[in-house]
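The protein record filed below.
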Amino acid sequence: MSQEPDPAQLLGLTADEELLADDGDSLPESMGRPPMIPMTRSGAAIVGVGATLTGVTLFGGIALTLLGAIDGVSSGFGALALIAVVLGVIMISTHWGWVHVAEFSANAIHSRRNSEIEQERFTWLRTLEPYTRYEVSTEAETDGSLTLATVRHRPVPTNPGHFTFVRELVDPERHPDEEPAAQIAERAEHLRREAALMTERERARFQAAADVQQRALLGQANEEEHLQARRATSEALAQQINTNLRDPPVTE
């Protein structure tokens, strides 16, 4: 088992956004999960409307251009023929714009609807504390045996001011299929109790380091207050002395 991280080196760090990539599925169940972003089809429907308008505009522009050209050839390009050709060319040249408008509208709607949920997800990140968690996993093997393993989620610093968790398997145990199920279940429960105790030990270590830091900050704040009070007293005395020097007492 690798050495446990020093809690003092992780104080003040916040969870990295990468932990939201799989909606927290790689983390222990005890840490909870971030709010899920709801699936919606409105964006796809808007993009579909944009694609339809793109097709209508393209083929409508081609039809207007051809009709205007045919009418112009037969009638000498009157006003109606010229207007039809111009409108047709404009529609053909701008038909892709409908797709971009639809995509922009869909993204704007999606962003507006999910902004509150995204904020809640980042709030959830800030609740995660950087101490090691342990849990027990079970996995059925192809030969019918069962593997019990303690999973260690170890916090490590990432980007400046952030941390993530590294998932490690600790002492996996393979139990053959002929082993009594009750015996395997008892062993699994024993490992779970040990995992809970180790997690609590790491939480206590982190909390102790956080308490030490908090007391140090409070002591620093009190010292700063005392320093400011002494400075204010000195400034008042200096001002009084300077006033007496400028206005000496009248002597007879």
Q: What stands out?
A: The longest strand covers residues 162-175.
